[in-house]
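Extended Data, panel c. Modelled sequence:
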Amino acid sequence: MLKNENSIFNIASDDAFFKEAMRAFHYQYDHDNVYKIWVDLLKVDVSNIKTIEQIPFLPIEFFKTLNVVSNPITSKTIRFTSSSTTSQVPASHYVNDIKLYEDSFSLGFERFYGKVSDYCILALLPNYLQRKGSSLVYMCQKLIKDSGHPLSGFFLDNIPELLSIIRQLNEMGQKTLLIGVSYALMDLCDYGLKLNDNFIVMETGGMKGTRKEMMKEELHAFLKEGLGTSKIHSEYGMTELLSQAYSRGDGLFEAPPWMRFLIREVEDPLKIRKDQKTGGINVIDLANINSCCFIATKDLGRLTPDNKLQLMGRYDNSDVRGCNLMLGEF
């Protein structure tokens, strides 16, 4: 295990991020067999990596078929899995140090929203609660516990209780985070709620075939109208990551200092864009030291001049070039 891995939470400059990223790259090349084979297949000379843009990013698809780990899986390892349909293979993320995950999401939340103990947390994650291994449920469970508020909790089908609690919190003026999957929040719009300014509504994506898919702008307009709120916040995270970025109502995601986005060319996935045009989203998540910190997602996006991320959609379901070649190595 890499020593002083909590040092990432002290990053306060581009130079500090660069040093931690290079340290993680060399560590994972030496200890993560999947990542090493990928880098070698790309014929990358590790000694020539001098910038973050030169670091190879692992296609996220490999989390579906291979154990992407830089430390051995033990009986204490927690396996997080992605949601999937019957035709999809779920991704698996093996987490050897759950405290590192807890520190990452707790410190990330505090950075953007303040102390969790100031909030009541209401979580609407029905499809996640109905299966095992959700990292989002784990995160919300810990935030609910750390909030210490007696009304904090998960809500599955008990809508009358949820409505009663929301009305109480409205009257109390209690600072509240209402976090949920898109379709569950949309269902809540049917009850004529008008939330006070003490509420933060945060969607985590996910229609899962329950409602018609919408563009983000359309979804947020629907939720603002239905819940009587001026802003809809969003969380950008995934099973394969241990950190989250947040949009605080403007559709632009900000990452904590130990997480960073790069945009790659669509036609040349090994080339990083230098402009503000749309491309594939690469994520550096330095909290992911025990699996892989450098992940090429299937999301499309663009970066603003101040390095905020705007989501633009997703790739289709075709495999990233090189995946089949890679799988032949195992």
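The chain has nine helices and 14 strands. This feature is highlighted in the accompanying rendering.
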